[in-house]
Amino acid sequence: MRRPNILLTGTPGVGKTTLGKELASRAGMTYINVGDMAKEGELYEGFDEEYDCPILDEDRVIDELEDKMSEGGVIIDYHGCDFFPERWFHIVFVLRTENSFLYDRLESRGYKGKKLQDNIQCEIFQTLYEEAVLSYREEIVHQLPSNTPEDLEQNLDQILQWIEQWMKDNN
Questions:
Q1: Euclidean distance between CA atoms 38 and 29, whole angstroms
Q2: β-pairing, 44-48 with 30-33?
Q3: What DSSP state is assigned to residue 50?
Q4: How many whole angstroms separate alpha carbon 28 and alpha carbon 114?
Q5: d(CA 23, CA 164)
Q6: Cβ–Cβ under 8 Å, residues 139 and 90
Q7: 3-state secondary structure of 54
Q8: Percent of the chain with pLDDT over 70
Q9: What is the DSSP annotation of 116-134?
């Protein structure tokens, strides 16, 4: 039975991992956090001193994921999306969080200075939503609020309904 591939994207701290893990559990799908996968496989091409983080080797990430994605039933979680092949995803969800919530979440993760400010600005200017709309067909890109536990439950319900409908339509 075919299953869809889903991309969860958005600024760091918006709740992609929480949503993705729970969604995979409830839907019986495979969850992949690209940041964790890159760390485990050392899929980097350098280090960014300014942001104090490794630089992702996007080509190696694509190579690593290609077979899994062709099987279907995968939920990908990453804060960028413009390097993934368009053919991989049936739907893209961009999680959005109000700045007051996001600031606290990022600060609790140890973000500070330029890294903290740039991520807040990224959310203010809808940078990742725009990236998603430019990278994928606009009709498959959807924004979801991700501020409260109630938002999480509503998003889970909405996506699970979408998965159920997709499977009826495609099997």
A1: 20
A2: unpaired
A3: T
A4: 39
A5: 12
A6: no
A7: strand
A8: 100
A9: HHHHHHHHHTTHHHHHHHH
Report the distance separating Cα 130 and Cα 32, nearest Å.
Answer: 23
State residue 52's pLDDT score: 86
What band does 86 get if pLDDT is binned at 50, 70 and 90? Answer: very high
Q: Is residue 8 exposed (0-12), middle (13-18) or buried (19+ Cβ within 10 Å)?
A: buried
Tokens of 152: 């999480």
Rounded distance, CA 9 to CA 74, Å? 14
Spatial separation of the C-alpha atoms in residues 93 and 3, rounded to whole Å = 16
Question: In 3D, which of 61, 15, 70 has the Cα closest to residue 35?
Answer: 61
With a cut of 90, say whether residue 51 has pLDDT above it.
no
Confirm if 110 and 64 have CB atoms less than 8 A apart.
Answer: no
- Decide: 10 and 98 in contact? Cβ < 8 Å: no
DSSP-assigned letter for residue 109: T
Q: How far is CA 81 from the centre of its chain?
A: 8
Q: Which two tokens stand for residue 56?
A: 């992702």
CA–CA distance, 99 with 145 (Å, rounded to integer): 12
Side chain identity, residue 113: G
